[in-house]
Design brief:
This protein is of the alpha+beta class. It has 3 domains: 6-177, Serine Threonine Protein Phosphatase 5, Tetratricopeptide repeat (Alpha Horseshoe), CATH 1.25.40; 181-288, no CATH class; 335-418, Beta Barrel (OB fold (Dihydrolipoamide Acetyltransferase, E2P)), CATH 2.40.50. The protein is 56% helix and 10% strand. The protein contains 18 helices and 5 strands. It has helices spanning 13-23, 33-43, 48-61, 68-81, 85-98, 103-112, 121-136, 138-141, 153-177, 181-194, 199-210, 220-232, 241-259, 265-274, 287-304, 306-319, 323-331, 417-428, and strands at residues 335-347, 354-358, 366-370, 383-395, 398-404. The protein has a 5-stranded mixed beta barrel with strand order 1-2-3-5-4. A hairpin with a 2-residue loop joins strand 4 (383-395) and strand 5. Helix 6 crosses helix 7, helix 10 (181-194) packs antiparallel against helix 11 (199-210) and helix 12 crosses helix 14 (265-274).
Length: 432
């Protein structure tokens, strides 16, 4: 991939030859008229196929030409125009042997490396050297002696930041391709800092962090954020819509697997659409962390509410496959220590002798059969504390029935109507 600006243009044909010859301290020259005749078709056409045919003949007949450097640059331009990245890559390497800071050769290498399928280790090494040269010598490679002669100072000034971003991105991609993910993470993060509007780079960065999950699992939340950035950002430099759609589906699955649900993902996608990097302190709790916190909270609750812990253990034993045996041998006719439940129903509606309480199930999971009627009635929802002797139970719907003494209930607020009338009468009597 070459920069799509005037920075990527080179002079061709006769213009290129005359330009390069003018730069030489000692001007190169044709060995004889026959050599010039081999070059002449190049100066008369813009057809890269004719160029290539003429260049091959020229090289074969005059391998030691004084114009070999110019010839190498013409090869580079011909291969580039023909869309032959492998040959253009190698031609650019040859040009760099003449001038290690040649702008067009360097930009050809860092652009065409993406099109080599697959690039070899040597290709990646060469591309890495080129990115290093660009990033370390940006002013030098845009100096007049290294850039195309028609590039103005203004063009060069505009092209420099674009080239810096492109070279930095390519440096990260090279490490990502090598599967050196920790190094790729560093280089790709630099590319994002230089230009946040790079959806593809966000994806590579996310993947680089995720691939380190085995040794650095703490990086997974940030990886999910960068995936969200690549999936949600739709401005200049974004991934194609179809890729974003597929990535969103992948992210939904990956996030849910990590977090245990999709809760919070919509907010992350909204943030990532506007912000290329996660905010300071960003984190996503893993499903394991959430479960650990739940268990710790449950243990703390059990410590402060021992009656609930007792009920949880009893219910677990009763709902197990051996629950019937457990009840008969361990609970039936035994006094169960104090438990608490919320009133669900009573029978009869006033002065009840039977209460249905809810300890865990809001529909009720305990029935109390009392030794006498309670006074008045009570609104559902009030908390009743009791102890009782277990008499029977059902698994579905779950219900345990206890015999209980009304005198040992705590929390009953009902009163008889006669008591209410006496109370109201007392309130109307004024002291003399």
């Amino acid at each position: 991939m070459l920069l799509k600006t005037s920075a990527a243009k080179v002079m061709v044909g006769a213009a290129l030859v005359s330009s390069l010859m003018a730069q030489e301290k000692k001007k190169p020259d044709w060995k004889d008229p026959a050599e010039y005749e081999l070059y002449k078709p190049i100066s008369q056409t813009q057809d890269p196929k004719i160029w290539l045919d003429s260049l091959d003949k020229w090289t074969k007949q005059y391998p030691q030409s004084e114009l070999a450097e110019i010839r190498r640059q013409l090869y580079l331009e011909a291969y580039r125009q023909l869309g032959r990245p492998r040959e253009a890559f190698h031609a650019a390497v040859e040009v760099l042997r003449d001038n290690p800071k040649n702008l067009f050769a360097l930009s050809t290498i860092v652009g065409s490396i993406y099109q080599l399928n697959p690039p070899s280790a040597a290709d990646l090494d060469q591309a890495e050297r080129s990115t290093t040269t660009i990033l370390a010598n940006l002013d030098g490679i845009y100096a007049k002696e290294n850039r195309p002669p028609e590039m103005s100072d203004a063009d060069a000034a505009k092209a420099k930041p674009e080239m810096r971003v492109f070279a930095q991105k390519t440096a990260g991609w090279i490490d990502w391709t090598r599967k050196d993910f920790s190094r790729a993470e560093v280089e790709l993060a630099k590319a994002i800092e230089l230009d946040p509007k790079q959806g593809q780079v966000s994806y590579w960065l996310a993947d680089s962090m995720l691939k380190q999950n085995r040794t650095n699992p703490e990086k997974q939340p940030a990886a999910l954020y960068y995936f969200a950035r690549a999936a949600s950002y739709d401005g200049p430099g974004s991934l194609p819509a179809s890729d974003r759609k597929n990535l969103t589906a992948y992210l939904n699955a990956a996030y849910t697997k990590y977090h245990g649900s999709d809760e919070g993902l919509a907010q992350i996608l909204a943030s990532a659409k506007s912000n290329a990097a996660p905010p300071a302190g960003f984190r996503i709790k893993s499903a394991a962390e959430i479960e650990k916190e739940r268990m710790e909270a449950e243990q703390m609750f059990d410590k402060t509410h021992p009656e609930r812990a007792l009920w949880k253990d009893l219910k677990a034993a009763l709902t197990a496959p051996t629950g019937d045996t457990y009840f008969e041998t361990n609970m039936k006719d035994a006094l169960v220590p104090r438990l608490k439940g919320k009133l669900v129903a009573m029978s009869p509606a006033s002065k009840p002798k039977e209460l249905v309480l809810a300890i865990e199930d809001s529909a009720g999971d305990v029935t109390l059969k009392l030794d006498g009627a309670l006074p008045g009635k009570m609104e559902p929802g009030g908390e009743i504390e009791f102890e009782g002797i277990a008499k029977s139970f059902m698994k579905d719907p779950f219900m345990v029935t206890f015999d209980a003494e009304k005198a040992k209930l705590n929390g009953w607020t009902g009163r008889n109507e006669t008591q209410k009338k006496i109370s109201r009468t007392k309130k109307t009597i004024s002291p003399e």
